Amino acid sequence: SQVNEEISVKHLPSTEPDPHVVRVGWSLDSCSTQLGEEPFSYGYGGTGKKSTNCKFENYGETFAENDVIACLVDFECGEEVEISFMKNGKWLGVAYRVRKELLGGRALFPHVLVKNCAIEFNFGQREDTYFSVPPGFTFIQHLPVAERVRGTLGPKSKAECEILMMVGLPAAGKTTWAVKHAAANPSKKYNILGTNAIMDKMRVMGLRRQRNYAGRWDVLIQQATQCLNRLIQIAARKKRNYILDQV
Question: What GO molecular function terms would the record report (predicted)?
């Protein structure tokens, strides 16, 4: 079948020089939140770039506030799955072709990465679409339930949640163990909380931001620590599994 979703973008106030990021696309359920930065994760960002596995290439056009992006997946292209996007009703061409044998029957899920933006989704629940849908494509919500694949379910209650706390001296291998343990137990969907994990996500165009902070390491550490403190506050209110990886 051919699947479609629409996303409308709204900026939120910020004091950063490059404050607003929106990247939309599709990923496997096993992928991390960092859309387009690992295999089987396919994103299209507002800078006019497409990305998968941290490879960024020019694609389509830039998009910003009040633009509407349609994310299209076509499963009826023979041995391949075609991923493409539309901006305000204009088709931008095929972004990725993925061989079905590589996907191995695994489902692609809608995925969005945002920074300082509010977004509105249309999976088919709106009475009217933002823009007309190409012939042959169906909104996800209109597909029969039997044709959909459910994503990993999180813990039903706080009592079922799991928190692992790493203990050990610096450089003892705590982060390495945490990453391996999370990868070995994908159904747990562990969220690793620690300044290392935060700094690893501080990427610009897929490149780690540490490279840009030569001589200002203390600034980066301070920012990451502030983020971690805020994440721990948020984590306390969410029903998820965590690994606390912090000295």
Answer: RNA binding
